[in-house]
């Protein structure tokens, strides 16, 4: 579905992304892992239109989307979340969801004078959809609370809910588990799996928690020093000595090969 063709992103002499070619298949959950500074978030930002690539191409469904701004990619169904949630803190949880769809009738000053009934109908439709999203994410009890009072994990669920308010084709999740307790992380993981299985969402997940990655992902891509180091099923990646060395260094590699997925997740904050 989304293919990176020899993508580079340089900041001066620093090659944050250095010739990455990879594919994120439609209808699958793909993990993107690597040690800190591997270039994962920079690649996300290039794909999502926050950074133009220095060179290379990005396509989605065969269409060249290289360098398109985020609002155009949003309209095409490519969405991303951020490691630090970006809610409208003074608005209610329900209102945060209702704000998401673009080109609402009420955004036009002329329509506020001439089409009040149309605005009311659209608002009722968006409210009903937002209520369904809250029920799906088990956040109904927080519908009228200010979003700024939510816990970190609840804010991550709210960000996931925003993707459900539009016709998302591909969703990029940047460290969705960062700062989230285990109970809420399971809830988030369950929601991602349901969206994938029941609604056909395509996900790409950047995450350090390898237990979470192993539970969710169909395949995993590993980056190190701006390049793709390895790719494969989670079980293969966890045992890949090159991957372990990239996380822990040569000196510790042999001590942890048999220690399981938690070892990789524990090496990065």
From TrEMBL:
Pfam families: ABC_tran, BCA_ABC_TP_C. GO terms for cellular component: plasma membrane. It comes from the Bacteria. InterPro entries: AAA+_ATPase, ABC_AA/LPS_Transport, ABC_transporter-like_ATP-bd, ABC_transporter-like_CS, BCA_ABC_TP_C, P-loop_NTPase. Residues 2-250 form the ABC transporter domain. CDD domains: ABC_Mj1267_LivG_branched. Keywords: ATP-binding, Nucleotide-binding, Transport. SMART domains: AAA. One of its GO terms (molecular function) is ATP hydrolysis activity. Belongs to the ABC transporter superfamily. This is ABC transporter ATP-binding protein. It comes from Pseudaminobacter soli. The lineage of its organism: Bacteria, Pseudomonadati, Pseudomonadota, Alphaproteobacteria, Hyphomicrobiales.
